[in-house]
Amino acid sequence: MRFSRAFIPTMKESPADAEIPSHKLLIRAGFIRKKASGLYDILPLGVRVLHKIERIIREEMDRAGAQEVLLPIMHPAELWIESGRWDVYGKEMIKFKDRHERDYALGPTAEEMITDLVRKEVKSYKDLPLNLYQIGRKFRDEIRPRFGLMRAREFIMKDAYSFHVNDEDAEREYWNMYETYSRIFKRMGLEFKAVEADTGEIGGKFSHEFMVIADTGESKLVYCEKCGYAASTEKAAQRKPEVPENRESEFKECQKVHTPNVKRIEEVSEYLSVPPERILKLLVYIVDGEAVAVAVRGDREVEETKFKQVFRGKEVRLATDEEIEKFTGQPKGFLSPIGLSIPVYADYSVIPMVNFVAGAGEKDYHLQNVNWGRDFVVKEFIDVAEVRGGDSCPNCGAPLIEKRGIEVGHIFKLGTKYSEAMNATFVDENGVEKPMVMGCYGIGVTRVMAAAVEQNHDDDGIIWPYEIAPFHVIVIPVNVKKEEIRNTAEEIYETLQREGFDVIIDDRNARPGFKFKDADLIGIPFQVIVGKKASEGIVEIKVRKSGERFEVPVKEVVKKIRELLGG
Amino acid sequence: MRFSRAFIPTMKESPADAEIPSHKLLIRAGFIRKKASGLYDILPLGVRVLHKIERIIREEMDRAGAQEVLLPIMHPAELWIESGRWDVYGKEMIKFKDRHERDYALGPTAEEMITDLVRKEVKSYKDLPLNLYQIGRKFRDEIRPRFGLMRAREFIMKDAYSFHVNDEDAEREYWNMYETYSRIFKRMGLEFKAVEADTGEIGGKFSHEFMVIADTGESKLVYCEKCGYAASTEKAAQRKPEVPENRESEFKECQKVHTPNVKRIEEVSEYLSVPPERILKLLVYIVDGEAVAVAVRGDREVEETKFKQVFRGKEVRLATDEEIEKFTGQPKGFLSPIGLSIPVYADYSVIPMVNFVAGAGEKDYHLQNVNWGRDFVVKEFIDVAEVRGGDSCPNCGAPLIEKRGIEVGHIFKLGTKYSEAMNATFVDENGVEKPMVMGCYGIGVTRVMAAAVEQNHDDDGIIWPYEIAPFHVIVIPVNVKKEEIRNTAEEIYETLQREGFDVIIDDRNARPGFKFKDADLIGIPFQVIVGKKASEGIVEIKVRKSGERFEVPVKEVVKKIRELLGG
What we know:
Two copies of one chain form a homodimer. By secondary structure, chain A is α+β, with helices and mostly antiparallel strands. In chain A, 25% of the residues lie in helices and 28% in strands. The interface between A and B is large, with 48 and 47 residues. Chains A, B: Keywords: Aminoacyl-tRNA synthetase, ATP-binding, Cytoplasm, Ligase, Nucleotide-binding, Protein biosynthesis.
């Protein structure tokens, strides 16, 4: 490709609405353009990256035994009504009518569409297992689209769905996909973690998220370098502490102290000179209309998703101030676990606490030297606090490492949720009709592109991993008006192409500094700079990622790049 | 690929709603399934074919200097309002509102979207020319979807749009695309013709359609083997006949004959024993409220599209019976060109006619020996009759050949229609702001798949051209329970894969006849049949297209297939 003929509109300034690096850089470097809220034009450089991402996905999915299909984007309403999700999905799903007033949705996900296909074609255990995938547009009408490709309304996804005779086979395929996804993201050159994840609305038994590690990620995860445990903080379990031996022997006498207008944990901590770890935080939740009290150590937060896994209710939320007073008869900010009429649950973090501070149940007073067991009854110790870096691994006890990440893949064991609702059955070896057991497996293709940039960039621009870079090498003649420079550059350009590299030559009649800036911004892994020493047969290779520069003879450019690639 | 694990649901019966071979066979052979009216699931075999078609298109478009982009499928209404097409496009365009009540369309074509991108990024003549293309879904809400992929509501299209500094450069690119399309369809192994076409609603200066030749095609075309002229019959010109010398010397006396209840050309021909070629057919059209009479030779039909090119009105249609009587004062079926108060135009086919039959202008009477010039005045000779096989080539006079075809590609020189409406301008070398000159170029990707089947099938099934076949070779062990046969088949399967062929092995435990039927139905170009002679190291190669069979040693299977491929 010749830069002079390529449609690569680079920009100096970031757009005003771009908040994160990938959004800013993909626009500045000419990979995408905003068409409307949450809608992006993908420009030629972006298409090149997407094709490379898609190719890796296809090769690995095919290798894993999955088969590619293409289902319509227009989803007939009947199927969503059948699964019970037509009304559940809410405003995120775009609905419309055709000219005959029939209802359709723009597919946000395709469980219904694929289950409909498979139930019509598969009748026997002999036709199973089956894993079908597609790569294409998906639609979610986000209320506030943002972060560029990260949370767009129209995006490209790889979605796969598998069908099995039993749970065991579905689980086998689950781990097959786990391995496949690991290979996919590894081949893309991304630092990632597969973490245990909450199964959320989609239902099902267990699931993993594949997270690209990046400081700007919206998700948090923890992992253990010793035993390999890794989980999203929405799911990560606390190691249950032992109850200290002879804890009763340490108990001191409970005392009431005056704490005028001192309510929040930090205020109490400062006022009484007690660290938050020794203060009890007491929260009231409403679970389907019933109130429950939940105690956590003062420096800890309740993780909503984990909480909902423990208290499985239709409606789960924090109580309002009025509800607190109504259910406890105590003033907010001074809630006491003692003498409460509603049940008190306590997070694992409370187990080791002795002689702690808690509210006194009356305005402007706290209690010191409170002890669970002696002063109040814990109905049950539960695991609802958010796990943090440094906490003990629930598996092996080693300290956990905490990172931020971007979810780029998600695998689910679905079970029979959709096959039962939609009557997708097969006849087994004994002639018995059974619902198929399903799994589903997604990768956000456009999101991978954005996540790769979040993870790999610096002040000068993007630093593409080699495998998904729009070009492997950019050849930069510093002055195209000098014949020697131009000819040497063209020679290298041709040689690299012949050797199978994706190459672009910056043949524009522009100042060297301008070209260098664009090359850094676009983020092509290797720059071959052809300057004055071309007359001596010497050019420079710059490695975008490390900034290293090497002077090499023209004849050895290919060899040097191969060497730098580690083979 | 192993047939036993592949999702290839073949069927014995054609679906009831399938009218044409491609629809029947693509369903029966397991390439597609109907999801709803005009919506199809593409199954793994179909995806393989589409990928091959897309790859050829990409390679040739890239080679021609075009660059791939991906624009959203959700088109903001503002852009269509700006171009003036929001209301014009009618019910074929699917419209919907997002959660914020903003209007969108599902893109049926992308002139507006691409012009919006280019007008924002391109400011100078230095950035032109530019040819951008995409491959993706398009939507047309056909009132009556039919013929499977041929006229679906959701389909895959390659659409390209080019931008230029002037007409001359746009024309250069037009012919560049003409050559590119010719290469594309040739590489796909399809028999096709590029024909001059009407520019229709999309506007613009000239256009060509690329037609895949097939007896079942909806379109008609004519071409000349001598000079290369080729045109759709909607566009094809008649060679203008010379007025015969001394025609007046042949004139006979005009006579009125009683023709009771004899109205239609065939009836008159039979009643008077005169061939239709010697009878004048007189039609009345309404052009924007004005009536005109048009005469054609009795065996010819007026081509509506050509007629509209001559009489450019907003509303052009045949007159109703009431209108005929009102404007001519004559009864329908006995219309006479003589003494008419509305102008009489005559098609070229009328020029050589002498002493012909025409209506007498009164009920139940015709005239014999009528002659134009003597008996009535022709306002103008025009070219509105449909050209047929055997007619003279308008270029060189040689007889034309007529075929039916399926439109799979269309190239247009658009001019400045969209760039003017949407203010897509650039500054030229002299600092003058001008609208860009545009071209657009489409290929119906899913339609190519259907057209290939229409052209290439027999009673047993599909006969894929090698370049777009889902697999190149199918290896058929006639009995997988016999170890020798199974091992030989597996060995050939592996060898062919290693040599770069796309291969499927029919490893199903099924009767040979069943496997042969499926292989013929699916239409893979080469079948390698491994039977009893495997013990002697001999297998059979069957060529799907010709039905030829060759016995070859196992070691020479690759060589023989290469030889049959002509290399």
